[in-house]
Amino acid sequence: MREEWNKIYAKNGKLMYEGFTKDGKPFGSGTSYYSNGKKCQEGLFDDKGLVYGREYYRNGKIRFEGSYKINTGYGPNYPVFGTCYDEEGNEIFYGELKIIKSGLGWPTIVKPECFGLTVPKGKPDFSKLIWERARKKPSGYYYVDVRGKKERLGFIVFLEKNGFTCDDSATVSRDSTIASRFPITVDIGRKKYGHMGNTTCAAAAATSKVIISPEVFFIQYEILSGVVIV
Description:
Elements lengths: L3 E6 L5 E8 L2 E9 L5 E8 L2 E8 L5 E8 L8 E8 L5 E6 L1 E3 L7 E4 L15 H8 L6 E4 L4 H13 L3 E2 L7 H6 L4 E4 L4 E4 L3 H9 L3 E2 L1 H12 L5
Protein backbone atom coordinates (compact mmCIF):
# COMPACT_ATOMS: atom_id res chain seq x y z
CA MET A 1 0.00 0.00 0.00
CA ARG A 2 1.35 3.42 -0.89
CA GLU A 3 2.02 6.12 1.67
CA GLU A 4 -0.72 8.74 2.09
CA TRP A 5 -1.58 11.63 4.40
CA ASN A 6 -4.16 10.60 6.98
CA LYS A 7 -5.56 11.17 10.46
CA ILE A 8 -5.81 8.32 12.97
CA TYR A 9 -8.32 8.55 15.80
CA ALA A 10 -8.76 6.53 18.97
CA LYS A 11 -12.11 4.82 19.54
CA ASN A 12 -13.12 7.70 21.83
CA GLY A 13 -12.68 10.16 18.96
CA LYS A 14 -9.38 11.66 20.17
CA LEU A 15 -6.81 12.43 17.48
CA MET A 16 -3.85 10.06 17.88
CA TYR A 17 -1.81 10.89 14.78
CA GLU A 18 -1.77 13.17 11.78
CA GLY A 19 0.65 12.69 8.91
CA PHE A 20 1.78 10.13 6.39
CA THR A 21 0.67 6.54 6.93
CA LYS A 22 1.33 3.15 5.39
CA ASP A 23 -0.98 0.15 5.87
CA GLY A 24 -2.99 2.23 8.33
CA LYS A 25 -0.15 3.15 10.71
CA PRO A 26 2.33 6.05 11.04
CA PHE A 27 5.04 5.98 8.38
CA GLY A 28 6.83 9.10 7.14
CA SER A 29 6.52 12.69 8.33
CA GLY A 30 3.86 13.20 11.01
CA THR A 31 2.83 14.05 14.57
CA SER A 32 1.32 11.86 17.30
CA TYR A 33 -0.74 13.21 20.19
CA TYR A 34 -1.46 12.40 23.83
CA SER A 35 -5.07 11.94 24.89
CA ASN A 36 -5.01 15.49 26.32
CA GLY A 37 -4.46 16.88 22.81
CA LYS A 38 -0.80 17.88 23.29
CA LYS A 39 1.95 16.66 20.99
CA CYS A 40 3.65 13.41 21.91
CA GLN A 41 6.11 12.89 19.05
CA GLU A 42 6.79 14.61 15.74
CA GLY A 43 9.21 13.97 12.95
CA LEU A 44 9.97 11.06 10.63
CA PHE A 45 8.34 7.73 11.57
CA ASP A 46 8.90 4.16 10.45
CA ASP A 47 7.22 0.91 11.54
CA LYS A 48 8.60 1.10 15.10
CA GLY A 49 8.44 4.80 15.86
CA LEU A 50 10.52 7.89 15.28
CA VAL A 51 13.67 7.85 13.18
CA TYR A 52 14.43 11.52 13.69
CA GLY A 53 12.48 14.21 15.47
CA ARG A 54 11.15 15.40 18.81
CA GLU A 55 9.17 13.93 21.66
CA TYR A 56 7.36 15.75 24.46
CA TYR A 57 6.14 15.38 28.03
CA ARG A 58 2.38 15.36 28.61
CA ASN A 59 2.66 18.95 29.87
CA GLY A 60 3.76 20.08 26.40
CA LYS A 61 7.43 20.64 27.24
CA ILE A 62 10.03 19.11 24.94
CA ARG A 63 11.60 15.87 26.24
CA PHE A 64 14.10 14.94 23.51
CA GLU A 65 15.26 16.13 20.12
CA GLY A 66 17.56 14.09 17.93
CA SER A 67 18.04 10.80 16.10
CA TYR A 68 16.82 7.28 16.90
CA LYS A 69 18.14 3.78 16.36
CA ILE A 70 15.95 1.64 14.09
CA ASN A 71 15.24 -1.35 16.31
CA THR A 72 15.19 -4.64 14.41
CA GLY A 73 14.50 -6.62 17.60
CA TYR A 74 11.88 -6.39 20.32
CA GLY A 75 10.49 -3.00 21.28
CA PRO A 76 10.38 0.46 19.69
CA ASN A 77 13.06 2.60 18.07
CA TYR A 78 15.08 4.36 20.76
CA PRO A 79 16.94 7.68 21.00
CA VAL A 80 20.70 7.46 20.41
CA PHE A 81 21.97 11.01 19.93
CA GLY A 82 20.53 14.40 20.75
CA THR A 83 19.41 16.72 23.52
CA CYS A 84 17.39 15.66 26.58
CA TYR A 85 15.28 18.02 28.69
CA ASP A 86 13.56 17.85 32.08
CA GLU A 87 9.82 18.46 32.55
CA GLU A 88 10.43 22.20 32.98
CA GLY A 89 12.13 22.45 29.59
CA ASN A 90 15.71 22.74 30.94
CA GLU A 91 18.48 20.99 29.02
CA ILE A 92 19.92 18.12 31.07
CA PHE A 93 22.04 16.23 28.54
CA TYR A 94 23.51 16.53 25.07
CA GLY A 95 25.36 13.83 23.19
CA GLU A 96 25.24 10.07 22.69
CA LEU A 97 22.79 8.17 24.88
CA LYS A 98 23.75 4.78 26.30
CA ILE A 99 21.28 1.96 25.79
CA ILE A 100 21.23 -1.62 27.08
CA LYS A 101 19.08 -4.48 25.81
CA SER A 102 18.58 -7.80 27.56
CA GLY A 103 16.70 -10.79 26.19
CA LEU A 104 13.17 -9.89 25.18
CA GLY A 105 13.12 -6.74 27.29
CA TRP A 106 12.64 -3.32 25.74
CA PRO A 107 15.72 -1.12 25.26
CA THR A 108 16.62 0.66 28.51
CA ILE A 109 18.29 4.09 28.66
CA VAL A 110 21.11 4.15 31.22
CA LYS A 111 22.74 7.43 30.18
CA PRO A 112 21.44 9.87 31.14
CA GLU A 113 19.87 7.91 34.01
CA CYS A 114 17.28 10.60 34.63
CA PHE A 115 15.82 10.32 31.12
CA GLY A 116 13.47 7.53 32.09
CA LEU A 117 11.44 5.31 29.76
CA THR A 118 12.46 4.62 26.17
CA VAL A 119 9.20 6.19 24.96
CA PRO A 120 7.11 8.94 26.61
CA LYS A 121 4.72 7.73 29.29
CA GLY A 122 1.18 7.69 27.89
CA LYS A 123 2.34 7.50 24.25
CA PRO A 124 -0.56 6.63 21.91
CA ASP A 125 -0.95 2.87 21.49
CA PHE A 126 -1.13 1.90 17.82
CA SER A 127 -0.63 -1.83 18.49
CA LYS A 128 -4.31 -2.85 18.17
CA LEU A 129 -4.70 -0.63 15.14
CA ILE A 130 -1.65 -2.22 13.51
CA TRP A 131 -2.98 -5.70 14.25
CA GLU A 132 -6.35 -4.86 12.68
CA ARG A 133 -4.72 -3.49 9.52
CA ALA A 134 -2.65 -6.68 9.21
CA ARG A 135 -5.72 -8.93 9.10
CA LYS A 136 -7.11 -10.21 5.84
CA LYS A 137 -9.13 -7.43 4.28
CA PRO A 138 -12.81 -8.14 3.65
CA SER A 139 -14.44 -7.81 0.25
CA GLY A 140 -17.70 -8.57 -1.52
CA TYR A 141 -21.23 -8.14 -0.28
CA TYR A 142 -22.34 -7.24 3.23
CA TYR A 143 -25.91 -7.57 4.44
CA VAL A 144 -26.52 -4.95 7.12
CA ASP A 145 -29.57 -5.06 9.38
CA VAL A 146 -30.59 -1.42 9.83
CA ARG A 147 -34.00 -0.83 11.47
CA GLY A 148 -36.16 2.25 11.02
CA LYS A 149 -36.32 4.80 8.20
CA LYS A 150 -34.33 7.42 10.11
CA GLU A 151 -31.56 4.95 10.90
CA ARG A 152 -31.52 3.62 7.33
CA LEU A 153 -31.26 7.15 5.94
CA GLY A 154 -28.36 7.89 8.29
CA PHE A 155 -26.57 4.72 7.20
CA ILE A 156 -27.07 5.57 3.52
CA VAL A 157 -25.81 9.12 4.07
CA PHE A 158 -22.65 7.64 5.64
CA LEU A 159 -22.16 5.37 2.61
CA GLU A 160 -22.68 8.23 0.17
CA LYS A 161 -20.19 10.43 2.03
CA ASN A 162 -17.67 7.63 1.49
CA GLY A 163 -18.28 7.40 -2.25
CA PHE A 164 -21.02 4.75 -2.47
CA THR A 165 -23.95 5.07 -4.87
CA CYS A 166 -27.22 3.19 -5.13
CA ASP A 167 -27.17 0.08 -7.32
CA ASP A 168 -30.30 1.19 -9.18
CA SER A 169 -32.51 -1.36 -10.91
CA ALA A 170 -36.17 -1.88 -11.68
CA THR A 171 -36.81 -2.88 -8.06
CA VAL A 172 -34.09 -1.01 -6.15
CA SER A 173 -33.60 2.72 -5.64
CA ARG A 174 -32.39 5.04 -2.91
CA ASP A 175 -35.98 5.65 -1.77
CA SER A 176 -36.88 1.96 -1.78
CA THR A 177 -33.73 1.18 0.24
CA ILE A 178 -34.80 3.69 2.88
CA ALA A 179 -38.39 2.38 2.94
CA SER A 180 -37.60 -1.34 2.80
CA ARG A 181 -37.71 -3.53 5.91
CA PHE A 182 -35.10 -5.90 4.47
CA PRO A 183 -31.31 -5.71 5.15
CA ILE A 184 -29.28 -3.17 3.21
CA THR A 185 -26.78 -4.72 0.80
CA VAL A 186 -23.32 -3.14 0.52
CA ASP A 187 -20.80 -4.08 -2.16
CA ILE A 188 -17.51 -2.64 -0.91
CA GLY A 189 -15.56 -3.52 -4.05
CA ARG A 190 -17.97 -1.74 -6.41
CA LYS A 191 -19.02 0.87 -3.83
CA LYS A 192 -22.70 0.15 -4.40
CA TYR A 193 -25.62 -0.25 -2.02
CA GLY A 194 -29.20 -1.50 -2.28
CA HIS A 195 -31.47 -3.83 -0.34
CA MET A 196 -32.56 -7.45 -0.28
CA GLY A 197 -35.69 -8.00 -2.33
CA ASN A 198 -37.86 -10.52 -0.52
CA THR A 199 -38.54 -12.47 2.65
CA THR A 200 -37.02 -15.68 1.28
CA CYS A 201 -33.64 -14.06 0.64
CA ALA A 202 -33.67 -12.34 4.02
CA ALA A 203 -34.55 -15.58 5.81
CA ALA A 204 -31.81 -17.51 3.99
CA ALA A 205 -29.26 -14.82 4.89
CA ALA A 206 -30.37 -14.86 8.53
CA THR A 207 -30.10 -18.65 8.67
CA SER A 208 -26.60 -18.49 7.17
CA LYS A 209 -25.63 -15.85 9.77
CA VAL A 210 -24.31 -13.46 7.13
CA ILE A 211 -26.45 -10.52 8.26
CA ILE A 212 -24.45 -8.13 10.43
CA SER A 213 -25.19 -5.06 12.53
CA PRO A 214 -24.21 -1.52 11.45
CA GLU A 215 -21.57 -1.49 14.23
CA VAL A 216 -19.88 -4.63 12.86
CA PHE A 217 -20.00 -3.21 9.33
CA PHE A 218 -18.29 0.01 10.46
CA ILE A 219 -15.46 -2.06 11.97
CA GLN A 220 -15.07 -4.08 8.78
CA TYR A 221 -15.15 -0.98 6.59
CA GLU A 222 -12.58 0.68 8.87
CA ILE A 223 -10.19 -2.26 8.45
CA LEU A 224 -10.63 -2.29 4.69
CA SER A 225 -10.27 1.40 4.04
CA GLY A 226 -7.69 2.35 6.67
CA VAL A 227 -10.05 5.10 7.88
CA VAL A 228 -10.97 5.07 11.55
CA ILE A 229 -14.67 5.72 12.07
CA VAL A 230 -15.39 8.27 14.83
